[in-house]
Every structure is written in structure tokens, then in C-alpha cells.
Amino acid sequence: MEKSTKKWVLLYLAAAGMGVLLHFLYSWLPNPALALISPVRESVWEHGKLLYFPLLAVSLLVGRGGGGTGRTPWLLSTAAVFAAMQGAGYLYHVTLRGESLPVDLALYFALLGVGFLLPRALWPLCEWPGTGKAAVALTGLLGALIVWFTFFPPDTALFADLSGAVRTFLTIPV
Fold this sequence. Notes:
mainly alpha, 8 helices, disordered C terminus
């Protein structure tokens, strides 16, 4: 295996491990700070954090030194994969009423893999003027929405706790 391939496989495994740890972090150490990066309930929206934060970390790590051009396709990939997770999660859990853990795990690992492959396809967009700023703004807006909806989730299916627990704001110690 080539050195660069090993690097990407290790980065993928590290990101996957980070996502798995994030899934349980809030249940192990419940507090408002960890609620921002870890799912606090079993909703489709909250599980987007498991892709957003590991891919954001990879984008900052891989894109360092390359300026905005090195980071831009990774930030766009992060937003795209988050949106794909919302769509696929809604379709599977809400529309089809699926509840299979193996399907959830396969969806997570597959979308994380797409998040690693997508930057190569998005690379040509980096040459468009303003794409770097737009990618930062889009990723920042998504992060702000994650923070806001952690504490104040709307009463819609995307934010519904599929485990039957209470609303997020009532479960977070403040």
C-alpha cells in the first residue's frame, strides 16, 4: 500500500472513530458544552453531528498550509454529506420507519467515505472566484444551525427523538 493511501485510510479510520466516540460522549458526560458536538437525542438532525465534526476536523487538518484552496473542497464536502445524511436519514427513519442498527452504521460509514471522496470531484469549483468564502460561510452557517437546534429543536420529524425521549432543551443541564 502506498504511503499516501495509508495516510488516507488512517485519516478515515480516525474520523470514523471520532464519530463513534461523539455518539456516546454526551451520554457519558452530559453537559451543555459536549451537547454542542455530540448527539443529545436520537434524531436524524443530531446524528448529522457525527459527520459534521469529524469531516470539519479533517478539512482543517488536510487543508492547512494550502490556504482556502486546500480547505474549500473539504468544507463543501462536509456540507454536502451532512445534507445527504439528513435526506437519507429522513427517508429511512421517518418515511420507511426503519430501525436497524446495521443500516444506520452502513449509512454512517458510507457517507463518511463519500465525504472523503467528494473533495476530489469538487476541486474544480475552487477556481471560481468567491467559492472559498462561500464554503466557509456555508459551513459556518451549518455549524450555527447545529448549535441553535441542539438547544431549540423545532417540532418536526427531522428533529424528533426517535427513541421516544423528551425534547433536547429539557434534557441538557444548564
